[in-house]
């Protein structure tokens, strides 16, 4: 069975949404960042970078050993390639496939990298420098979100690649979700179109996230009707989560990554990986 090593709300949420979309059996392995479990020797043996997520795929290894894969974009592409019937990547050799590669690389190497500067500016300088880095990163992310808005406007489709859902959509959903705290209190960050898509479920897995009440209520007032079809009941998928948002206890706390946010939010919960 596939195993995903995760921490709630981190980049691991992206392949988690892909796994939910695939509907295949998988197990979640919680990596407790509070005790630096991602820096422990046993975890570093899987990912020497000490970052989350890691995917274990027993069906794809060599010499009888399971495949151990890190880097979020690589994990998503591997899941799409090993489940071609799901259609989560365009066909090989097509222009659409090349566009998928482009957007995955851009989100991983450009947007996500700049978000890390925003969330962890202290890694790059003293207190005064960190404040400047954070401010500049926020402004730069705003222009990047404008690029996503422009792409949706250009093709007019419901998904990042146009008419077809792909692994690009959970990626965009999670990264946009990380920007909820940008700008003055209560204000929307830049790029309202792409953010309302993300908040309301631009990824079908994202709709499940909203239904399960992850971490905080999205800042949208209306649910686009075309997204509502992707709603998934909570927990056993036979009853909804009736937990008020944000931060109220969730009646289906057995769920981990997608439901853990229904528990009262702790300080710093919304930090990126």
- Form type: flat
Percent of residues in beta strands?
5-15%
Mean pLDDT: 74
**How can the largest sheet be summarized?**
4 strands, mixed
CATH architectural label of the largest domain: Up-down Bundle
Total domain modules: 2
Low-pLDDT stretches are 185-192, 198-273
In whole angstroms, the N-to-C terminal distance is: 25 Å
CATH top level label of the largest domain: Mainly Alpha
Along the chain, the helix and strand elements come as EHEHEEHHHHHHH
Radius of gyration: 18 Å
Biggest sheet strand line-up: 2-1-3-4
What is the helix content?
40-55%
- Derived structural class: alpha+beta
Q: How many DSSP H or I helices?
A: 9
Per CATH, what is the topology of the largest domain? Answer: Glutathione S-transferase Yfyf (Class Pi), Chain A, domain 2
């Amino acid at each position: 069975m596939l195993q995903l090593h995760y921490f709630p709300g981190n980049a691991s949420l992206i392949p988690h949404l892909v796994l939910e979309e695939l509907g295949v059996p998988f197990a979640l392995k919680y990596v407790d960042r509070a005790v630096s479990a991602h820096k422990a020797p046993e975890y570093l043996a899987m990912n020497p970078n000490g970052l989350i997520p890691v995917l274990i795929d027993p069906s794809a290894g060599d010499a009888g050993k399971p495949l151990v894969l890190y880097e979020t974009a690589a994990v998503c592409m591997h899941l799409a390639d090993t489940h071609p019937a799901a259609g989560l990547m365009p066909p090989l050799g097509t222009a659409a496939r090349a566009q998928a590669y482009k957007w995955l690389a851009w989100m991983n190497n450009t947007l996500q990298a700049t978000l890390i500067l925003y969330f962890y500016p202290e890694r790059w300088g003293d207190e005064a420098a960190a404040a400047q880095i954070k401010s500049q990163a926020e402004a730069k992310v705003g222009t990047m979100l404008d690029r996503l808005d422009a792409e949706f406007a250009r093709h007019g489709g419901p998904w990042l690649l146009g008419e077809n859902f792909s692994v690009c959509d959970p990626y965009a959903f999670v990264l946009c979700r990380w920007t909820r705290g940008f700008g003055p209190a209560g204000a929307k960050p830049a790029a309202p179109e792409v953010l309302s898509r993300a908040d309301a479920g631009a990824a079908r897995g994202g709709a499940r996230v909203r239904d399960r009440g992850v971490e905080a209520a999205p800042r949208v007032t209306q649910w686009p009707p075309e997204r509502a079809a992707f709603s998934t009941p909570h927990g056993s998928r036979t009853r909804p989560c009736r937990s008020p948002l944000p931060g109220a206890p969730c009646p289906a706390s057995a769920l981990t990554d997608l439901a853990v946010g229904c528990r009262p939010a702790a300080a710093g919960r919304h930090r990126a990986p």
